[in-house]
């Protein structure tokens, strides 16, 4: 069960710590899903790790850019590619990202999954309640943080 406690700021996450967070998240989310939808780029690695733990073989990808590489954000999340509705319709979809910071990216993706006729459930490694700018919160998260998290799979991390 995730501890939902606060973690130190800033956090440099190791591969072992990442594995522990994914294990806690897997225990929390359960197994009642048809597929995993990973939000790029940060959600790709956790989604793959989670899919192994949940024995889910189907992983789809939503390409979304909110944070610009040069810094700052777009006015709203930019959806670069998204699975076609027939791939999602009538299915229970576990939507995975590494962090819920403002919540805007996940909110956009969840809305699109619902519009495709599917039932989305959100799961993130880290939830930043003090930074969220949307109503609600993730359905599942492994830990809360306030500051920056450097994940071991990100370039330069």
Q: What secondary-structure arrangement, pairings included, does this model have?
A:
Elements: E1 11-12, H1 15-29, E2 35-39, H2 44-54, E3 59-67, E4 73-81, H3 85-88, E5 92-100, H4 104-115, E6 119-127, E7 140-144, E8 149-150
Helix pairs in contact: 1-2
Mean pLDDT: 90
Count of helical regions:
4
- Along the chain, the helix and strand elements come as EHEHEEHEHEEE
Percent of residues in helices? 25-40%
How would the global form be characterised? globular
Poorly predicted runs of 5 or more residues? none
Q: Outline the biggest β-sheet.
A: 6 strands, mixed
How many angstroms separate the termini?
27 Å
Main-sheet strand order equals 4-3-2-5-6-7
Binned strand content = 25-35%
Task: Give the radius of gyration.
Answer: 15 Å
The total of beta strands comes to: 8
Structural class assignment: alpha/beta
Quick overview:
The chain has helices at residues 15-29, 44-54, 85-88, 104-115; strands at 11-12, 35-39, 59-67, 73-81, 92-100, 119-127, 140-144, 149-150.
Q: Would you write up a description of this structure?
A:
The protein is an alpha/beta fold. It has a six-stranded mixed beta sheet with strand order 4-3-2-5-6-7, with helices on both faces. A two-stranded parallel sheet has the order 1-8. Helices cover 27% and strands 32% of the residues.
What structural keywords apply?
two-stranded parallel ribbon; six-stranded mixed sheet; alpha/beta; 32% strand; 157 residues
């Amino acid at each position: 069960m995730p501890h939902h406690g606060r973690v130190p700021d800033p956090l440099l996450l190791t591969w072992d710590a990442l594995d522990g967070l994914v294990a806690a998240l897997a225990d929390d989310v359960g197994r009642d899903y048809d597929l995993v939808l990973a939000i790029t780029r940060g959600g790709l690695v956790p989604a793959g790790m989670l899919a192994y733990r949940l024995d889910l073989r189907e992983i789809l990808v939503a390409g979304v850019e909110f944070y610009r590489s040069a810094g700052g954000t777009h006015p709203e999340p930019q959806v670069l590619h998204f699975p076609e509705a027939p791939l999602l319709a009538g299915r229970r979809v576990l939507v995975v990202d590494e962090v819920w910071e403002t919540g805007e990216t996940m909110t956009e993706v969840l809305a699109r999954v619902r519009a495709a006729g599917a039932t989305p459930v959100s799961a993130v490694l880290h939830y930043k309640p003090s930074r969220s700018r949307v109503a609600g919160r993730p359905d599942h998260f492994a830990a809360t943080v306030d500051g920056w998290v450097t994940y071991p799979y990100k370039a330069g991390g």
